[in-house]
Amino acid sequence: MAATTIPVDPFDLVIIGGTGDLARRKILPGLFRRMCAGQMPEGARVIGASRSDMDRAGFQAFVRTALEEFAGETQCDDGAVDRFLDMLDYETLDVFADAGWKRLKKKLRADVIRAVYFSVGPSLFGEIARKLSDHKVTDEHSRIVVEKPFGHDLETAQALNAELRACFDEHQIYRIDHYLGKETVQNLMAVRFGNALFEPLWNAQHVDHVQITVGETVSVDGRGAYYDKSGAMRDMVQNHIMQLLCLTAMEPPSKYGADAVRDEKLKVIRALEPVPLTDVVRGQYSAGGDVDSYVAHSQNPKSTTESYIAMKVKVANWRWAGTPFYIRTGKRLRARMSEIAVVFKDPPHSIFEGEFNRKGNVLIIRLQPDEGITLRVTIKEPGPGGMRLTEVPLDMTFAEALGDQVAFMPDAYERLIMDVIRGDQTLFMRGDEVEAAWAWVDPIVKAWSDARDKPEPYDASGSGPEDSLMLLHRDGRRWREIKA
Ligand code: NAP
After folding, report:
1. If you take atom 46 of ligand 1, which residue's CA is the nearest one?
2. Which residue's C-alpha comes closest to atom 45 of ligand 1?
3. Ligand 1 proximity of 145 Cβ (cutoff 6 Å)
4. Which architecture characterizes domain 180-411+430-473 according to CATH?
5. pTM (2 d.p.)
6. I want to staple 367 with a disulfide (CB 3.0 to 4.6 A). Which of 46, 122, 338, 376 is the partner?
């Protein structure tokens, strides 16, 4: 059964940074896959722009190679690549020079949706916004898409928001966090608010704790110098993990709509308690196998930046008082594993004998690998020999449950770009949300900086620093195993 797709209206999408890594690996292949899925209307155009001196044919050749490398499996016919290349155009443009903007403006059509994707480093975001506005390349109906990182701290995020808002209304600004485009993340909302079963249990009375894990096997090799200025807190927690936490903890919005959902997420961020240093564990991976250590990759022998962080986070409101959220993320861990695990309390009384008697249920929302949802339940161990209990997963791996639909399901970037064209901001971060997240993160970072805190070394291909195990052990809990 093929997934249903609803074509969007005709558009001009300009990608500033159209020759960059993100455009080549994600944006352009994603748009191609949407065309294959039948979602591109007649009259869709994608215009690459960057300083590289090339003409339309040169850009088409560049994109052809990108598709060969990154488009993956598609349901496309033989002529599809040529049809996609036909949609493309290119303009040589230096963000700081006026000439390119004037030429770009002439290329754009008046009667279609206009969106501009800022696929360049964040230092150019403000200037692009000004140039778009000064040259009237955009108007009040246009949309802009802004990549991460959105600021380095509260002050820089506020400054960036001010620069964008000087030229665009909030409803025109699409701040991407690609985690929000993941199928499972949206499924978290479907599971919570589309079933009557879970919501009555979704609170401190029934949930013992929540674990959010984003584990990666990759190192920072190749981007160590950049990463060293950011670290796991800024690179992962402030955006992706905060978003997962918000969607898990938020109150039911009155409807599935941009402001209704974002209002509820914002309330969660504002309810987060400050985190004392005793509830934070930071780590740096050591050398292991044929991979160098973090400090070698960052080319900074004195680096105190964390490639791993674990924290105990408290949401101070009626729903969650007393239920901690443990979050962790790191590079060079044993497996690539991202999940949210909602661990329910043990049954209050056992009528059975034996050690399995009082296991709480666990609902696991898996982002990777094998996106899906699992509910761990207790059942009777099969066979004779009395009433022995065991745990089994009620497993809904999307690939098995949905068959073909999964193979051709849009990835996060595809879905989000189509949302931009549709004008749906539900899965994008609002400016106040980003600022509230930084306002919570900044004092934690300042506290470890003031304390001259050094990250703990951890073995590459393990599950993080020893102290992160202690973070849960001291509360009588344990992390779920990091495994593929
Ligand atoms: P990149 O590979 O360095 O590409 C940057 C692009 O910007 C190039 O096309 C470059 O082309 C263009 N550019 C640079 N200066 C310019 C100027 N003055 N005027 C016009 N164009 C200019 O960077 P990227 O990896 O694609 O990242 C782009 C953005 O996405 C960044 O904000 C990054 O943090 C974010 N991001 C990237 C990834 C990823 O997987 N790559 C993932 C998440 C977020 P010319 O040199 O020809 O001008």
Report:
1. 51
2. 51
3. no
4. 2-Layer Sandwich (3.30)
5. 0.94
6. 338
pLDDT at 354 (0 to 100)? 66
Mean pLDDT by 10 residues, the chain (484 residues): 72 98 96 92 95 98 96 83 97 97 96 97 96 96 95 97 98 95 89 92 97 96 94 97 97 96 98 98 94 95 97 98 98 96 90 70 90 88 83 78 66 93 96 98 97 95 95 96 86
Taking the C-alpha atoms of residue 470 and residue 303, their distance in angstroms, rounded to an integer, is 24
Domain with CATH 3.30.360.10 in the chain: 180-411+430-473
- AA identity, residue 87: M
Rounded to 5°, angle at Cα 216 from 187 and 369: 40
Q: Is 92 near ligand 1, meaning CB less than 6 Å away?
A: no
Query: What is the distance in A from the centroid of ligand 1 to the CA of 216?
Result: 23
Answer for the pair 105, 136: CB distance below 8 angstroms, yes or no: yes
Judge whether 407 and 1 are in contact, CB under 8 Å: no
Q: Alpha-carbon distance 47 to 468, whole Å?
A: 47
pLDDT of residue 1: 43
391 lines ligand 1 (CB under 6 A): no
Catalytic, 240? Answer: yes
CATH class of 11-147: alpha beta
